[in-house]
Structure formats: structure tokens, C-alpha cells
Design brief:
heterodimer; A: ten-stranded mixed β-sheet; 21 strands; 36% strand; B: alpha/beta; Rossmann fold; six-stranded mixed β-sheet; four-stranded antiparallel β-sheet; 10 helices; 12 strands
């Protein structure tokens, strides 16, 4: 190691890169404390103050931190980001800037524009006949203070500065509550949009599933322009006994946008969680998932597919906590990297001492198409119980030349053979989508992405600017 | 003449493996190429099918009257050249059905024909599966994934039947086959044989040639064809081994 004195100096210098942005937030917080806490229930108001104090101490995460070793945000800290500050509600019709349609896929759409829940009718909460509540989190805090107060801030721990900052600065997001024994038929879709240049937003979503409840949630992060921006998002999810959540995350952002998507899930006994993360484009995407298996018999399957090129960067941090016995978890992340793209996978499994009869599996596979692309993959298992089945595996490789020749020898042109192999590689994640219309749509997007035809569109990626554009090489994945 | 190879020299990483090979095949013929290990039999197959890394430094491969030295592998395939691989490749995630449909349609596109209809394709699959007694469950799986050695080889012949080549090269198709599977494979080949196509059978042993009867037998040694004859040559080789060839032709 280097001289410790010298090392310390370097550290201080690095830490200063986030200083202007830190200062901006600290000043904003002091100046606009009242506005930020306008709808706070007492508990949240206190959490907000405490979080700001913590943030002032910790600042933003730095490369010197183990969990941030391979994702360097110093350029983002140094860029001139504005804190979103709009007193008056957005007057424009959202459909003028953004439309999201999937053929044959009827969803209940909730939009978050620049960090605030967007509702054209000014009606910010809806309750249907079965008692399902959806809408603005700040509105929910006013109308259901006890319900929100019970879960808010309880699931996501403030393990770094971003989470503290989010707690201190957030004012809105989406709230979903599904009562006991209710299966929500229609998929709920959250669309998160940044519409002003150089914004940094702190948005927070809270999802609560009662006992035996069932919900499918599609969470889209999209760019609608080429402006730079930073999204610091925290999602808290509570899944009660035997409830079931399918969560799809779809990320298609421009190369200037950074997305930090932090999701913490509490799983009660017998609950089921399925997560599929599709990162198709984005300057910097970091997905953090904290799955807290707190009830016996909980089950989770967390999958991801990332397709990055140019100088894009994706970082998946999956943390599974087996806190009680008899839980099963599975992680599968696959990625294809082109040009100078970089990826990080950090898969953490923690099996507590009493969590016997645990099954926990993890796998990360990568294809590097160029010598200049790079992936850092790190399995990290901490097992304190002795009667468990755990495994992990990681691979980094190129497209298989033997397989390429095999396909070519059967008459399939090189470019198509390459596509077919890449698509086959991605299929293990795509195939897990249980909603047919969504799977077909994502299949199509992945094909376009692999061909280089998909970029961020003027409208929603799910209905890309040229929906009628023929797919030249169409692999029919339906089992005929 | 379907295939005419003139003074072929092939190198891998600068090392010459085939050293001036002459060989021709007419439609309706079955040629067996035999010889000890490491004499360039598989290299010849790779050169004919256009595999990357096999550099033709001299000579010509003439197929259906055209020099194909520079043709891409898929063009050669779509013009009717088929290789039954010695070690068929497993391709996880690509189902046999999709693989075959993509291959069949690639050829049709090459020939400016419209894609095959689903119904027509299924019918063809069913028909060709019977030819090599391949089970339906195999075609629902990923290409060669988890197939036994025998199933992989049967699958090669099944693909051959689907793609209807004019020139089929069987590279050690008999290796790893038990006698029953060998019969099935040979029987499949014999049914596909016609006056419009030709076969090159690469093998170490005469065993396969009891079932796929060759019109010509060639012995390859040290990058050349050193001896040619009728099917009796194969029997002679089986009895005497390759030592006498080595003694005769060692430089």
C-alpha cells in the first residue's frame, strides 16, 4: 500500500468533487424546509431532518467505498445540476410530451413528471371498489397518515448518502396500496419522466401489498429528450403474508441521464417476489435491490438483462437477506456489452445464523463484443447457517465462434447468426415475462436494440417512434 | 462435375496442413476419405465449407463450375454444401424448431423464394424426423443441448434432410455411435442419396462403409490423397491398418 499520509490527502481531494452539489442541497434544504415538508406527517418530518443531518456528514458516495468502487459519479457531481423547483403544477397535457402504449396491453398508468406525481385532473388519489388505493404519495400522506406512516422509511435503510438525500429532499412519488385478499387484475404502470434539462430529482414510491394480495407492476424510466439529468429514486415495497408481486423495470434513457434506482422489499411469510430489470439504454444506470426475506417460506426470483454500448454504464447491486429459515432466492443477470460500455454486477447473499433450509442461487453471465468493453462481476456470500444450499457463478466471454460457424454452415448469414446467438443469450430473462403483450413488446425492443435500431425515442420506448417499421430478422420465438 | 479441387494448399496459423490436394466429385457419387489421425481430413472439410482461420494459400475449389475460394460459409451452404459436424455444437436458447426454420428460410431467401409457411414447415419436419427416427421432444429443445452422442449425429442427418444439399460432407459421423444408431444414420443417408447429389464420407473405419457403400475410396496422408480405389480399398485398409501407407509415403 502507499504511504498512508499521501493516501489520506488523495482521499480528501476526491471527497471535494461532490462539494458544490452538496452545498446546493444543504442551502436549498435550509431555505425551503417548509415547502419540502409541506405535507409531512410528524414522523416523516423528523426523518427528513435527521436524514439531512446524516447527508451533511456522509455526502455523496465516493469511489473509495467498496460498493462504489466500479461506478464513479464524480463527473456527475461536478456537472451543473439543478434541483427541481416548481411551485405551480405542470399545465401541459402529459400526452403532449409522452405517450406509452403497448399493443394489446391495457395498464393503469401513473406518471411521475420531474419528481412529482402527475395527474391531469388534479385528482391525486383513486380508490376502486375493492379498496385498492393508487396515486400521489404526498396526497396519501395527508389522507392516510397512519397507513403511510407505518411503512414509510421503514424498509429502505440509509446505507449511503443517496438514500439519506432522497429521504431529506423527496416530496412526492407513487403510492399503491392493495388490501388483503385482493388481486389487482390490471397491471399498474409507473412512468417516470424528466422533462427539464439538467435536473436532479429525488423521487420516492411506496407499494404495500396486504395478505394474499397480488399485483403486477411495470416501472418505466424514460428519457423524452436528450437533456442531461439525474434521478435518485427510492422504492419501498412491503409484501405481506402469501402476497405476490411481479415487478418489471424497463429503462431506456439517453446517454446523458443517470438513474439510481434503489428498491427495498420486505417479504413476509410465504410471499413471492419476481423482479425483471431490463436496462436497454442509459448513460449511467445503477439498480440496487435489497430483498429482505423476513417471513418463512418467502420466495424470490430476481433477473436482469442489460444491453449497453458506447460509453454507457450499468451497475446492478442485488442484496438478498435470508433472515429466517425456509426461504428460496434466485438471481440471474445477463448482459451484452459493446464498444466501450462497462457493467458491474454485485450479488450479495446473506444467510443469517438461524436461517436453516435456505436455498440461494446466483448467476451472472456476460458477453463482451469488443476488447474495450468491460465488466466487473463480484459474488459475495455471507453464510452463517449450516444447513443451506447456496451457489454462485459468473462468466465473461465472447460470442461462441464454433456456434457462429455452425449457424453459418446451415446457411444463416453472419450478421443474423450473431443476432440469433445474442438473442438466445438474452432469452432466459425475456422468457420470464408472464404478460404476453409485454413480453412480445420487450422481445421486439431487444431485437431492435441488438440490431442497433433502438435508441431513445421521441415517445415511449414501448411504442417506439416507428411501430410499423418491419423487423427485418424476425425470429419466431413462439413454440410452433 | 459437382466439385473439383485443384492443387489445394491450406494453412492454419501459417502451418500448412493440406499440401497440394486434387480431388473431384460427380453428382450421384459417394466418396470415402480415410486415413490416419492428423492427415488433414477435417481440414479439407473446413476448407470446402469456408471456415474462418483455414487459409487457402494456393489452388482452387471449384463447385458447380465456380471458384468458391472467397465465398462466405452461408453462401456455400445456400448453394447446397452441407457439413455433418464431427462434434455438433450445442446452442442453448435457440430451439431446434426456430433454428431449422431460420435456416430453411435463409436458403429460400437466398434463392429469392418466399418464406416457408408454418404448416408446410411442420409437415416437412415431421416427415424428415421419421427418416432418422428422431423423437419429437428433441426438436422442442435447444439445438443439441443435452442430446446424447447418438442423438447429436442423428440430428445432423435430420438437418441434412431438411436442407436437401447437393454436396454433403459427413465428418466422422460414425464416431461415438453404437451399431443401432449407426444403422439409423446410414439408412437416413441412403434414403437421401440420389443422382442429383453427392456425398463425401470422412471416416477412420470401414464399419460405416458397410452401410454407406462408397463408389470411391481415397486415402489421405500428410495433406494429400495418396491412394484411390474402389470399395475394396477400405476393406484392405481395415485389414492391414495404415502403417504400410505411412511407410510408402513418408517423406
Amino acid at each position: 500500500m502507499t504511504n498512508p499520509v499521501k493516501g489520506k490527502k488523495v482521499m480528501e481531494k476526491i471527497n471535494q468533487t461532490d462539494y458544490p452539489l452538496r452545498k446546493k442541497f444543504t442551502e436549498y434544504f435550509t431555505k425551503h424546509a417548509e415547502r419540502l415538508g409541506r405535507y409531512d406527517i410528524p414522523k416523516v418530518a423528523k426523518m427528513r431532518r435527521d436524514a439531512m443531518e446524516t447527508f451533511q456528514k456522509t455526502g455523496f458516495p465516493q469511489k473509495s467505498m467498496e460498493r462504489w468502487r466500479n461506478t464513479d459519479l464524480k463527473n456527475i457531481y461536478a456537472s451543473d445540476l439543478k434541483i427541481f423547483d416548481r411551485e405551480t403544477p405542470y399545465k401541459k397535457q402529459l400526452s403532449e410530451i409522452f405517450l406509452c402504449e403497448v399493443k394489446g396491453f391495457d395498464t393503469h398508468v401513473l406518471s411521475v413528471l420531474n419528481g412529482s406525481f402527475y395527474s391531469p385532473e388534479e385528482e391525486k388519489l383513486t380508490i376502486d371498489g375493492s379498496g385498492v388505493i393508487v396515486g400521489s404519495l404526498s396526497k396519501a400522506m395527508q389522507e392516510y397518515p397512519e397507513l403511510v406512516g407505518k411503512y414509510y422509511g421503514e424498509i429502505m435503510q440509509q446505507t449511503d448518502g443517496f438514500k439519506s438525500l432522497n429521504m431529506a429532499m423527496t416530496t412526492d412519488g407513487v403510492f399503491i396500496y392493495v388490501p388483503d385478499n385482493i388481486e389487482v387484475e390490471k397491471t399498474i404502470q409507473i412512468i417516470n419522466i424528466l422533462n427539464d434539462p439538467n435536473l436532479i430529482i429525488n423521487v420516492r414510491n411506496l407499494v404495500i401489498l396486504g395478505k394474499n394480495a397480488k399485483l403486477r407492476l411495470l416501472h418505466c424510466d424514460d428519457s423524452v429528450n436528450h437533456h442531461a439529468g439525474f434521478i435518485n429514486k427510492v422504492n419501498e415495497v412491503f409484501i405481506d403474508d402469501n402476497a405476490e408481486l411481479e415487478l418489471y423495470k424497463l429503462q431506456n434513457l439517453n446517454d446523458e441521464t443517470a438513474l439510481l434506482n434503489q428498491t427495498a422489499v420486505h417479504q413476509s411469510a410465504g410471499s413471492r417476489l419476481k423482479v425483471n430489470v431490463f436496462s436497454l439504454n442509459g448513460g449511467m444506470i445503477r439498480n440496487e435491490i435489497f430483498d429482505l426475506m423476513n417471513g418463512q417460506g418467502a420466495w424470490s426470483d430476481v433477473r436482469g438483462l442489460y444491453l449497453m454500448d458506447q460509453k454507457q454504464h450499468v451497475d446492478n447491486q442485488v442484496n438478498i437477506y435470508h433472515n429466517v429459515p425456509h426461504c428460496d432466492s434466485n438471481q440471474l443477470f445477463k448482459g451484452i456489452l459493446d464498444n466501450e460500455a462497462t457493467a458491474v454486477f454485485n450479488g450479495y447473499i446473506n444467510v443469517k445464523r438461524d436461517a436453516q433450509q435456505t436455498n440461494a442461487f446466483q448467476r451472472n453471465s456476460n458477453i463482451l463484443l469488443t476488447k474495450t468493453s468491460r465488466v466487473d462481476t463480484m459474488p459475495h456470500l455471507e453464510i452463517y447457517a449450516d444447513d443451506v444450499k447456496c451457489s454462485h457463478g459468473a462468466s465473461v466471454g465472447q460470442l461462441d465462434n464454433e456456434a457462429l460457424f455452425y449457424l453459418e454452415q446451415r446457411g444463416i448469414p453472419f450478421a443474423d447468426a450473431r443476432m440469433l446467438l445474442m438473442y438466445a443469450f438474452a432469452d432466459a430473462v425475456i422468457n420470464e415475462i408472464t404478460i404476453d403483450a409485454l413480453r412480445i413488446s420487450i422481445e421486439d425492443m431487444v431485437k431492435r436494440r441488438l440490431r442497433g435500431d433502438l435508441s431513445i425515442c421521441d415517445r415511449c420506448v414501448l411504442h417506439c417512434s416507428n411501430p410499423d417499421q418491419p423487423v427485418i430478422f424476425d425470429i419466431d420465438m413462439s413454440k410452433i | 462435375m459437382l466439385l473439383n479441387i485443384k492443387n489445394l494448399h491450406v494453412s492454419i496459423d501459417g502451418k500448412e496442413i493440406i499440401k497440394g490436394l486434387n480431388f473431384s466429385v460427380n453428382k450421384g457419387e459417394v466418396h470415402a476419405i480415410m486415413g490416419p489421425n492428423g492427415t488433414g481430413k477435417s481440414t479439407l472439410a473446413a476448407a470446402i465449407t469456408g471456415r474462418a482461420g483455414y487459409e487457402i494459400t494456393q489452388g482452387e475449389i471449384i463447385y458447380k463450375g465456380q471458384v468458391i475460394n472467397d465465398w462466405s460459409p452461408d453462401k456455400r451452404a445456400n448453394e447446397g454444401v452441407f457439413l455433418s459436424f464431427q462434434y455438433p455444437i450445442e446452442i442453448p436458447g435457440v430451439s431446434m424448431t426456430n433454428f431449422m426454420r431460420t435456416a430453411v428460410n435463409a436458403k429460400r431467401e437466398y434463392l429469392s423464394q418466399s418464406p416457408i409457411s408454418a404448416k408446410e414447415f411442420l409437415k416437412k419436419m415431421e416427415e424428415k424426423k421419421k427418416l432418422v427416427q428422431i423423437q419429437s421432444k428433441l426438436t422442442n429443445r435447444s439445438v443439441n443441448e443435452g442430446f446424447s452422442g447418438g442423438e447429436k449425429k442423428k440430428n445432423e442427418i435430420f438437418q441434412m434432410a431438411m436442407l436437401e444439399p447437393e454436396l454433403a460432407i459427413l465428418d466422422e459421423t460414425d464416431s461415438g455411435l453404437d451399431i443401432d444408431a449407426l444403422r439409423v444414420v446410414a439408412n437416413g443417408v441412403n434414403q437421401l442419396k440420389s443422382s442429383e447429389n453427392a456425398f463425401i464420407v470422412i471416416t477412420h473405419y470401414q464399419r460405416l462403409l458397410d452401410y454407406i457403400v462408397p463408389d470411391f475410396v481415397h486415402v489421405m496422408y500428410n495433406g494429400r490423397i495418396v491412394k484411390s480405389g474402389g470399395k475394396k480399398l477400405a476393406v484392405e485398409l481395415e485389414e492391414k491398418g495404415y502403417e504400410w501407407i505411412k511407410e510408402q509415403f513418408d517423406d
